[in-house]
Amino acid sequence: MATTLRAAEVELFPPKDSTDNDQINDVVGNKTDSAATKASEETSSMAYIKGILAMGFDLSGGAISNRTITDVSLVSPNGSGTNGYTWATAYKTLQAALTAASTDTNKCTLILVAINTGAEFYDIDTTSDPTFTGNYVIKGTHRTWQKIKNTHDSATSILKFTGYVSLIDLNFNLGEDDVNGIIITKSASRVNYCQFTGEDLTGAATAVHYDGATGLKHHKMQDCTFRGHKTYMIGVLIDKSCCSRYFDLQFHSCLKGIQIVDADDDGSSDSNSFTNLDIGGCAIGLDIDVGDTQHFETIKFHDNDLNIDDEVKNHLWNNLIGEFPITIEPITTPNYPGVTVTAGTDAYGSDTLIRAAVTSTKPFRIVGYRFEPSAEKKFMMRFSADSGTSWFDMALIEVKKEKAQGASIGTDFVFNAGTRISCSIGGEDGGSVQIWLNIQEI
Fold this sequence. Notes:
The chain is mainly β. The protein is 11% helix and 40% strand. The protein folds into three domains: 8-56, no CATH class; 174-323; 327-441, Jelly Rolls (Sandwich), CATH 2.60.120.
C-alpha cells in the first residue's frame, strides 16, 4: 500500500509543538480551500501540509548535504529562535541548534548556517570546551561569510565534537586570547572548504585538533586555509590519528603548519596522506614527532624558518617544491679532497660511506655527483641509501685520470633525514675514485 502524505507526517517529520500551525501559515498563508472549512478538516489539512514540508525538508536536506540526513535545523541572525524549522523561526545561535539536535547515535542533523554580518558574528560564548555528542553536518555558504568564535572569558576552544561531524564552508576565528579552534575525538570526520584564523592570538592555540585518546582514523580535510600567528598557532595537530587524507591546504604564518604526535608512539599516528599543501611564513612547516610512513605529495614550501622537523625519518616524499640551495659534500681543506672509494678488480669493492646518517638532519635530494678516478680506465659506480642492500643510481665512467668530472642523478628520490649514503665501485683493473655529492636539503 502506498504511503499517503498524511501517513507520512510521523514518518518524515518529528513531532512538533503548537507553534507548528503558525509556522505552516507563515509558509503557505492562512487561506484554505473550500474543502477544509470544518474544524476537523482544517486539522487534516494542516497534517497534510506538514507532510509536504517534511518531505520537502527530507529531500532538500539530502540534496544540500549530498549525504543521508535525518533532520534539518536552520540558524540565522534574523530568525525568531523558536525551533529552527524555517528561516523565519531559525535559531539565532549555532549552539542552540546543536543543543536541540538529536544525540541518537543513528541519526544525523544537517545544520544550515546563514550569513551573519554582525559585529559579534556567531559567538558560541560558552565556558571551557563546548562539547556536543550528536552527529552533525554543519554547512555555511562560503568560508569567509559565516564566522564563528567563542569569546567567553573561560573558553578553551570554539567547539568540541565527540560524534561524527562534517564541517563545510565555515570560518572559525580563534580570537584574541589563547582559545583553540575545533576539537574532534571521533573517527571519519570531514572538514571541507573552511578557514581558520588566529592572527590576533596572544597565547598558544591549535586550530584543528584530532584528539584520539583511543586512536582515530579515516579523517578527510579538503581545501582549507589556515592564517595563523607565527608565535602561537598550530594549524593541524594530529594526535593518535592514522590513515587519513589531507589535501589542498594552505598554511600561512603559523608556529607549525602540521604537527604529528602520539605520546605512546604505538603506531596510532601512522600512514597519513598529505597532498598539495602550500606552507609559507611558518616557524616550522611540518613537525613530525612520531608516526611511520606518512605520504607527502606535491608540497610547496616558502619563507619558513624550518620546512621540516622530522624525528621519525621513514616517510614517502614526492614533488617537494621550493627554493632549496645546492651544496657540495664533503668540503674539506686543504685541497678539497672527496671521499675515496676503492674499486674491486672486475667486481665491486666494499660499501663505502659517503654521507653519514648523523649529517642528514633534513630530508634531502642528491641532484648530482663529482668524481675523480685514479686511472684512465672504466669504473662502474653504484650508490645506495640502505648500506649496499639496493642501489638508487648506477653509472659507468671512463675519463682521464686525476681530472674531476660531474654527472647528474637521474632519479627523483627524496631521502629521509637520517639516511646514510654509500657507494661501491668496480674497476677493470682495480684503482679508486674520489666522490663528491651535490646535496639539496629541503
